[in-house]
């Protein structure tokens, strides 16, 4: 997964080419410096979470806008898989004002059950309600928020 400190992020996300079916990089825009910054971030997260585990302190990963959240959630779920073996150390944040949140919680809970790690969740109303509605309207996208 992407929490391997020795892995290049651009090698992680591969998809079949529409032209010939070969597996190609989905992300090809990362420079070697950006790849190293990502590996440094993953290393720091692992050190932080290992220390939190030793001191029995839970770490709640906060949620952000919808256009950032998939990456944050992916990293958080992988960190749960790695660090939530005997107890919930890592918790993901779920914003209840978003239409997709219920299904995301169910999917993440099912993954934790299937892969045998503790699921950690923080449920919040969410702080970006108006911002998300404005952005969706401005870009002609479906409103991601609950009425």
UniProtKB/TrEMBL annotation:
Catalytic activity: L-proline + a quinone = (S)-1-pyrroline-5-carboxylate + a quinol + H(+)
A Gene Ontology biological process term: L-proline catabolic process to L-glutamate
Listed cofactors: FAD
Start and end residues of each Proline dehydrogenase domain: 30-146
EC primary class: oxidoreductase
GO cellular component, one term: mitochondrion
EC number: 1.5.5.2
Pathway(s) per entry: Amino-acid degradation; L-proline degradation into L-glutamate; L-glutamate from L-proline: step 1/2
GO MF annotation terms: FAD binding; proline dehydrogenase activity
Keywords, in A-Z order: FAD, Flavoprotein, Oxidoreductase, Proline metabolism
Keyword Flavoprotein in record: yes
Family recorded in the similarity comment: Belongs to the proline oxidase family.
Known role: Converts proline to delta-1-pyrroline-5-carboxylate.
Name by which UniProt lists this protein: Proline dehydrogenase
Protein source organism: Nilaparvata lugens
């Amino acid at each position: 997964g992407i929490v391997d400190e020795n892995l290049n992020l651009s090698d992680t996300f591969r998809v079949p080419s529409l032209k010939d079916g070969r597996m190609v990089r989905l992300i090809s825009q990362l420079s070697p410096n950006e790849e190293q910054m990502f590996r440094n971030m993953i290393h720091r997260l692992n050190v932080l979470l290992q220390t939190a585990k030793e001191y029995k302190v839970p770490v709640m990963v906060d949620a952000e806008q919808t256009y950032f959240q998939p990456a944050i959630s992916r990293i958080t779920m992988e960190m749960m898989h790695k660090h939530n073996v005997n107890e919930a150390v890592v918790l993901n944040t779920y914003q209840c004002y978003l239409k997709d949140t219920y299904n995301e919680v169910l999917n993440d809970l099912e993954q934790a059950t299937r892969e045998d790690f503790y699921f950690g969740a923080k449920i919040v109303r969410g702080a970006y309600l108006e911002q998300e509605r404005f952005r969706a309207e401005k870009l002609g996208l479906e409103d991601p928020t609950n009425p």
